[in-house]
Design brief:
By secondary structure, this protein is an alpha/beta fold. The chain is 33% helix and 21% strand. It contains 12 helices and 12 strands. The strands form 2 sheets. The chain has a 7-stranded mixed β-sheet, with helices on both faces. Strand 5 and strand 6 form a beta hairpin.
C-alpha cells in the first residue's frame, strides 16, 4: 500500500440541487483519498451518484442550481477545491486534473481538427512555442497508440472511429501531464476489444507517469482489471470500500454481494443458469426510504434496517461497510 500523503483528499462531500420540487441531496457525506500512481474505482448502478462525485471534484456542476455542503472539503495540493474561485479552477482543470468523459463525440469539438484541439490545450496551460506544441501533440498521439498521427492530427472527430476518438480524448487529457485523471465511464460506448485496449493503455500510463486515476464505472469487470481499491456507492452514499482483491473475495455489504453475483461467469453453455438480479430500482432522491437506503431491495433486511440508518463503519484493515449486519 502506498504510504505517501494523499494527492486528493475528499472529506464529508455533500452535493445538492435546487429543483422545482425543492432542494435535493444527491451526494451525502462521501469521503475518500487517492494517492499518486493509484487507480481508485467508484462503482454502482446508474443514479447512485458516481458522476456527480467526479464532476464535483472538477467543479463542473451547473452553478445555477447545484450546491456543495459547507462542511465539504476537496483537498488537492493544499487547495480546497470545494471553495476555490473559478479563476483558480481554470488553472487546475485540464492541467493538474484532467477528465475523460463517457462519450468522446461530446468531449471533442466537431468543427475543429484534432491537432487544433490539442494545440489549444497546450497553448492555454504551457509556455511551449507553436512548433514545440505540435511535436508534443504528435508524441501524445503516439503515446495513446494512434496510428499515422500526422494524418490524424489534421482530421476532424467524425473521421475517426469510436475507439480512436476515445484515444484522442485520453491524449487531450494527458497532454499537460496531469497529476490526477478522472475517467467517467470511459469504455461504455466501446466494443470489448477496444475496451480492453483502452484499459491497458490507462494502466500503462499511470505506471509510467505515476498519474493517479479515479475510474467511474458500473462494470465490476472493469474494476477487477485495473483498480487497486474500490468504492461501492448506492443512493448517494458509500456503502462499502476495500482493496479490490478483498472486496471480490469477501464482500460485506449485501448490495456489493448482489452486484458481484450478477456478473456472468465463464463456463459451458449447458451449465449456465439464469443470472441473479437485484429486484427493484435505485430509489428516487425525492423518495428515499427510511433507515438503510438499500433495505427494500435487500434479502438480509431486519427491522432495525427499516428503522435506523447505518453509519459507515470505522476503518479496519483499509475497508469500511455501511451495514448493521455485514456479511462474513
Amino acid at each position: 500500500m502506498n504510504s505517501s500523503p494523499p494527492l486528493l483528499d475528499v472529506q464529508n462531500l455533500s452535493v445538492g440541487f435546487h429543483t422545482d420540487r425543492g432542494d435535493v441531496t444527491a451526494i451525502e457525506d462521501v469521503s475518500f483519498q487517492v494517492r499518486g500512481g493509484e487507480i481508485l474505482g467508484i462503482v454502482g448502478e446508474s443514479g447512485c451518484g458516481k458522476s456527480v462525485t467526479s464532476r464535483s471534484i472538477m467543479r463542473l456542476l451547473p452553478e445555477r442550481n447545484s450546491f456543495i455542503g459547507p462542511e465539504s472539503k476537496i483537498l488537492f495540493g493544499g487547495t480546497n477545491l470545494a471553495q476555490a474561485a473559478e479563476r483558480t479552477m481554470r488553472t487546475i482543470r485540464g492541467n493538474r486534473i484532467a477528465m475523460i468523459f463517457q462519450e468522446p463525440m461530446t468531449a471533442l469539438n466537431p468543427v475543429f481538427t484534432i491537432g487544433w484541439q490539442l494545440d489549444e490545450a497546450l497553448k492555454y496551460h504551457t509556455t511551449l512555442k507553436k512548433q514545440a506544441r505540435r511535436q508534443h501533440a504528435m508524441e501524445m498521439l503516439r503515446t495513446v497508440e494512434i496510428p499515422h498521427p500526422e494524418q490524424r492530427y489534421r482530421e476532424y472527430p467524425h473521421q475517426l472511429s469510436g475507439g480512436m476518438r476515445q484515444r484522442v480524448v485520453i491524449a487531450l487529457a494527458l497532454c499537460c501531464g496531469p497529476e490526477l485523471l478522472i475517467a467517467d465511464e470511459p469504455t461504455t460506448a466501446l466494443d470489448v476489444t477496444i475496451q480492453a485496449q483502452i484499459l491497458r493503455l490507462m494502466d500503462d500510463l499511470r505506471k509510467k507517469h505515476e498519474t493517479a486515476v479515479v475510474l467511474i464505472t458500473h462494470d465490476l469487470g472493469v474494476i477487477a482489471q485495473v483498480c487497486d481499491r474500490v468504492i461501492v456507492m448506492y443512493a448517494g452514499q458509500i456503502v462499502e470500500t476495500a482493496d479490490v482483491q478483498t472486496l471480490f473475495a469477501n464482500p460485506q455489504h449485501p448490495y456489493t454481494k448482489a452486484l458481484l453475483e450478477s456478473i456472468p461467469q465463464p463456463g459451458p453453455a449447458h451449465h449456465q443458469t439464469r443470472l441473479p438480479t437485484i429486484e427493484g430500482l435505485v430509489p428516487s432522491l425525492f423518495e428515499l426510504p427510511s433507515g438503510c437506503r438499500f433495505h427494500d431491495r435487500c434479502s438480509y433486511r431486519d427491522p432495525q434496517c427499516v428503522a435506523q440508518q447505518p453509519q459507515l463503519s470505522e476503518e479496519t484493515n483499509l475497508r469500511k461497510v455501511r451495514c448493521f449486519f455485514p456479511l462474513s
